[in-house]
Amino acid sequence: MKLCRYNNNQLGLVEGDQIIDVTAALELIPPMRYPAPLGDQLIANLGAVLARANALKANAPRLSLASVKLLPPVGNPTKIINAPINYVKHIQESNADPGIKHGRTTITHISDWGLFLKATSSLVGFGDEVRLLYPERRNDHELELAIIIGKQGKNIARENARQYIAGYAMGLDMTTRGKELLSWRKSGDTYALLGPWFTTADEIADPNALDLELKVNGETRQKANTRDLVYNVDRLIEYASDKYTLYPGDIILTGTPEGVGPVVPGDVMQLYIAGLGRAEVRIAPAYAGPPERPA
Ligand code: MN
User: Fold this and answer.
1) Is residue 4 classed as helix, strand or coil in its secondary structure?
2) Which of 55, 77, 198, 247 is paired with 149 by a 20 to 30 Å CA distance?
3) Contact between 222 and 259 (Cβ < 8 Å)
4) What is the pLDDT along the chain (295 residues), one digit of tens a residue?
5) What does pTM read for this prediction?
6) Rounded distance from Cα 100 to ligand 1 centre (Å)
7) Which whole-number Å values give the CA distances from 51 to 60, 151, 280, in the listed order?
8) Distance 82 CA to ligand 1 centre (A)
9) Sheet holding 211-216, edge to edge
C-alpha cells in the first residue's frame, strides 16, 4: 500500500493518480499525554491504521493527486540517519572533485566515517520547495533510498533487519558543500525531503536492487541501482542500531550514488526510484536568504 500525508495532515491511500481520503483512520492512534512517546505514532500503529483505511476505502472521497500538497509521509521521526559515503563511484567522484572534498584527507570507507544525523526540523515533503541556505555557494542534490523503521530495536543483526522495516520512500539529502560539519551543511530547514509517499515493505521484494534516477530540468544527473550500496539496507540497519536505538518512523537515508551536482534557484529536480514513485521538487526561485536577525 502507498500512504501519504497531505494538505492539513490528512491521510490518503495513493492509487494511480488519485488519493483516497482515509483521514478517519488516524482515530486508531491512541491519545497521548505529555511527554509523547518516542517514535512516530502513525508508524507505531501502522497495522491498525491500514486495516481501518482499507475498511473505509470503498466509501471514502477521492481526489486528484495533483490537487494536493504532499507532506512528508512520516511526521515525527526521532532521527534522520544518513550514510555518508556508501557507493564506490560516489567516493571516487568525491576524491576527484575539490568542490566536494574541500581539502579533507582522502575519503575512504563508511566504516571509517560512521553515520550522521540530519535535524528532524529539516524534513519536508515533496509538496514543498527547497530553500537554499547559502545561495551563493554550491548546493548539491543527493537522491537516496529511504528506509522507514517500523518498530523499536537495538543491536539488530542484518539477518533480522527486514523485520524492522515498515516501508520505503524516496529521500533527498540536500547538501551545501564546504568546510563545515555535515550536520550544519545538510540539516537546515528544507534540506531533508521524504516522499512522495510511504510504500509498505511488502511491495518491495528486494530493496537492494532498485533503480534510482534524478534529473535536473530534464537532464539526467544520477542514474544508479541500490545493488551498488557498499553497506546494503540490511547491513545499514545493523550498523545504525549498534549505536542508536531505532524507533518507529526513524528514517535511514542510505547514501547517494554518483552524479551529485549543483542546483540553483528555479531548478526543478525530477526524482524516481523503482516502486516508490516519481516526483518533482523545485528549488525556490529568488530566495532572498534567511530573515535578518540581530548579531
Ligand atoms: Mn547523502
Assistant:
1) strand
2) 55
3) yes
4) 999 999 999 999 999 999 999 999 999 999 999 999 999 999 999 999 999 999 999 999 999 999 999 999 999 999 999 999 999 999 899 889 988 888 887 888 999 999 999 999 999 999 999 999 888 899 999 999 999 999 999 999 999 999 999 999 999 999 999 999 999 999 999 999 999 999 999 999 999 999 999 999 999 999 999 999 999 999 999 999 999 999 999 999 999 999 999 999 999 999 999 999 999 999 998 755 555 665 6
5) 0.95
6) 12
7) 14, 18, 30
8) 6
9) 219-225, 211-216, 268-273, 277-282
Ligand 1 center from residue 268 Cα (angstroms): 19
Report the alpha-carbon distance of residue 220 to residue 197 in Å, rounded. Answer: 23
Helix (H, G, I), strand (E, B) or coil at 80: strand
Say how many Å lie between the CA of residue 118 and the centre of ligand 1: 10
C-alpha grid cell, residue 56: 473505509
| 107 Cα–ligand 1 center, Å | 14
CB 201 within 8 A of CB 165: yes
Q: Show the domains of the chain with their CATH numbers.
A: 2-70 (2.30.30.370)
CA-atom Rg of the chain in angstroms: 19
CA 116 / ligand 1 centre spacing (Å): 9
- Name the pairing type of β-strands 18-21 and 62-64: antiparallel
105 CB-near residues (< 8 Å, 6+ apart): none
Q: What's the N-to-C CA distance of the chain in angstroms?
A: 49
Could you give the CA distance from residue 55 to residue 185 in angstroms, rounded to a whole number? 44
Confirm if 156 and 237 have CB atoms less than 8 A apart.
yes
What does the longest C-alpha to C-alpha distance in the chain come to? 60
